[in-house]
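Example 3.2
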Amino acid sequence: MENQTKNKKSPVFGIILTIVIVVGAIYGYKKWSYSNAHEETDDAQIASNVSPVISKISGYVAEVRVKDNQFVKKGDTLIILENKDQLMTLQQAEAALGTAKSNLNTAQAGAAAANKSISTSNAAVATANAQIEAAKVNVWKTTQDLKRYENLVKDHSITQQQYDQVLAAKQAADKQLQILVEQRNQAAQQTGYVSSQSEATSQQIGVASSMIKQREVDVQNAKLNLSYTVITAKQDGYVSKIPVQVGQFLQAGAQLFSIVLNNDKWIVANFKETQLNKMVEGQKVEIKIDAFPDDEFEGVVSSISPATGSTFSLLPPDNASGNFVKVVQRVPVKITFKDLKPEVAKKLRAGMNVLVDVEVK
């Protein structure tokens, strides 16, 4: 009886074992086929554009207009710095600009006066030249008269007194010509002096004009620094934690906090280097977000980083130091959503964990 019982049980056990082996083989084959056509990783996070808020000048915080996690629009005031120093600098620049403009007006007035003096001197030279020509005619006439009277006085045709009068007229004409020539030379020298003064005044006008441009730049720079005392949002988005307090001193160029922009979301998945053999841009991606366990999303491979993540770290590994341990590197891959609903996109936050599955075949 016992042998008969064993013979009856043996076929059932064999069938069950066969079924288990077949099911296991089918499951294993499917997993093997799936793994050959898919690459997945849970080392992935939601990413978004982040705009840093930076102070362009140093100064003390006078007012903080935003709170943690607040939504702000482009142009909204975030922080106000004390502006007394910037106001004083602006007033000094404006006063210097006024002085430069006054200097230009003075130089222009001097140039106008010099031009008038040049015209007067030129007129005086022209008058002197005309008088010299008339005096030369008079000298020629008196010279001719003197020659005739010399002959007459030798013949005793005229008296000595008459001859002396003609001689005196000749000497007076020579003297008058000499005086006019000297006056003409003085007028010409005065014209040269006034011309030199005019050139110098013209150069002063150029210097004054350049100084005005420089002072205008100083005023614009002072206004720009004054505007930097009001820190505004460059884009719409949510501000991060605000570590800034009233009275705190801010250094120029220091990042105060960030604004997470609300205009775009994507995924950065860090795949092992051994998973990238078949991965190319444009491949379909299945996405599961931990925050939405009941939903599945679709995406595509947008781009693959040209270097591993460790290459861009603060302290990249130096394998030439002698202490080398081989570590599988990870390469960031950008994945963009496909037909992501706006209401879901608004709920997504940068840094959320994601599971991605890339169909590589």
